[in-house]
Amino acid sequence: MTAAAFFDVDETLIGFKTMFRFLAFHLERRGAAPGTYERLTATLHRAAADGAPRAEVNRRYYRLYTGESAASLAASGRAWFTHELAGAPFVPAPTARFGAHRRNGDLTVLVSGSFFACLDPIAEHLGADRAFGTRPVIRDGLLTGEVVTPLIGATKGRTAHAVAAIHGLDLAHCSAYGDHSSDLDLLRSVGHPVVVGSDPVLTAHAQLAGWERLPDTRAADRPRQQETRT
Fold it and tell me: In a 3-state reduction of DSSP, which class is residue 180?
């Protein structure tokens, strides 16, 4: 192994925001009252609209799971992903690249602000070597509502550096894929950055630096979701 390929997940490999889709599924699965999802997510939307930092919005999302069993969330995540698979959730072009990196023997790494309930079944399905997400604090098997560090923004770039150091890889020979301006630190950390879709910030960087771009082919089929980015 001489290189790694780092992939953002939401709207890079998967055509939607996993955290929100999972939350809606999980609430329905446990029999929450109608309107619970809308009420809970409205607080996140308001925080983002009021200018709260993305890391803070990310933390507030995980507080929604305070007192939940980690094992129950993991089981719900597996059921959620099985449900999502019926709708062909993967974005074709970057997912094809993921498979190409695997066949080439590259270390394949998912890097996401999402968490184990969403990421573990996705990683297992793809055959990813590593999956790094936001880590909820768990005590006695229950989520406290807090997280270690939201894995967003600059933390994604630091994760790539750490993975490379552990495996003795030169990041100049590594690749990264992302769809949003918050992936910029991850993309800048490698020698072969690839922009997925048409985010204006990433598109501008791609044009200036000669980065490769891949189309978000799902965009023609259905609108990109407008939920708060976490």
Answer: coil
The tally of domains found in the chain comes to 1
Inter-axis angle of helices 36-49 and 54-63, to 10 degrees? 160
What is the β-pairing status of strands 175-178 and 4-7?
parallel
Rounded CA-CA distance 109/4 in Å is 7
Q: pLDDT at position 224, please?
A: 40
Q: Residue 131 maps to which CATH number?
A: 3.40.50.1000
Q: Which domain holds residue 185?
A: 4-220
Percentage of residues in the chain with pLDDT exceeding 90? 90
| Burial of 77 from C-beta contacts in 10 A (0-12 / 13-18 / 19+) | buried
d(CA 45, CA 110) in angstroms, rounded, equals 26
Write the DSSP assignment of 33-88 as a string of letters: PTTHHHHHHHHHHHHHHTT--HHHHHHHHHHTTTT-BHHHHHHHHHHHHHHHHTT-
Query: Is 228 a domain residue?
Result: no
User: Tokens 């993921």 sit at which residue?
Assistant: 98
pTM value? 0.92
Q: Tokens 């259905």: give the residue.
A: 222
